[in-house]
Write a structure and sequence with these properties.
Blueprint: H1 13-20, H2 24-31, E1 36-40, H3 43-49, H4 72-77, E2 82-88, H5 95-114, E3 120-122, H6 126-134, E4 138-145, E5 165-169, H7 195-207, E6 210-212, H8 218-227, E7 235-239, H9 253-261, E8 265-268, H10 272-275, H11 286-299, E9 304-306, H12 327-336, H13 340-359
Helix pairs in contact: 1-2, 2-12
Amino acid sequence: MPELAYPDHRQDAAAWAAQLGISREAVELYLGSEVIDLHLDSFIWQRILGYDLRKRHGLGWLRGRFYSQVDFPRALEAQLGGAMWSITTNPWRSSAGRAAAFTKNLAELRATFASVAAHCSVVRSRGEYAAARAQGKHAAFIAIQGGNALDRDESALDLIPEDVVVRVTLVHMSSSTLGETSSPLRFGQDRGLTATGRRYVEALNDKRIFVDLAHISRRGFFDAVEVHDKRQPLIVTHTGVSAVQKSWRNLDDEQLRAVADTGGTIGVVFHGPYLGGGLLRGGMAMRIVDHLQHIVRTVGEDHASFGSDFDGAIIPPRDLRTCLQLPRLVQCMLDRGFGPALIRKILGQNFLRALGELRG
């Protein structure tokens, strides 16, 4: 079992603050919070390029753009209490091939976490999260990006063992048998959620798995809201808001309210073009706060979170290239006038509340 070496910044908050160029207040607030990222895509690089999540990496060939933004040692150094680690679906496989690939990838991801069990635990509920954190471990939630990983037939969701998957993003960058993507790569009219997609939402509800409405078309979004069990919180793990930056990937105020009405939460993505930063430079971390502030003003402080999409081929803000700079986001929120209680909610408490409502 590999031993993951990393500096513990809790021993010298002032030194970490100086390193990041921010206040000690921001670092101490960060270190005293439950910090949970709703969307990490790092596993895709392990699958494709052999990027070992257990080894510490630098910024890579592209200097923190697109990939090499998170690994286990850096996540632990960043005191990232928890995160949703996604298994992303290859839409070009057959339906049977996607199901087989998912089973293989899930086994690999679980084995990777098991190999660092002294530092990380796979968790499925708020209670399991609390138990992992009490042991000083990173709490890893497993998620599926692209529900067509398991759309072979109506029994395909039974391939999820012991309900280990906490979240399914219904569609990704391409349309599927479940419904339409919001991507401009979609061809033809927006048909929304299909009949299969509607039954899929109901099946996820039965398993008490978060239905994630990132990436779905606007019509599909509201089709899912219609069929979804109103007693369970919806979630959007990684998005921007269109009132701050117009984009095919961002949500409008009506969509924000639909999620908030279920008690769910909305994670703000770190991709510069969705935030309003330049395509290549990625803007600054304060742009994330612009989106968070709009969510808070529109639907209240209980429904804003963050879902970086680190390693999801994104161009993050240039002052927030990797998870190691996350305390800078706290400084930006303090500078904007956010109080400590609100900041703690955004960093993790809002998600934990929704998780508790879904699974206890």
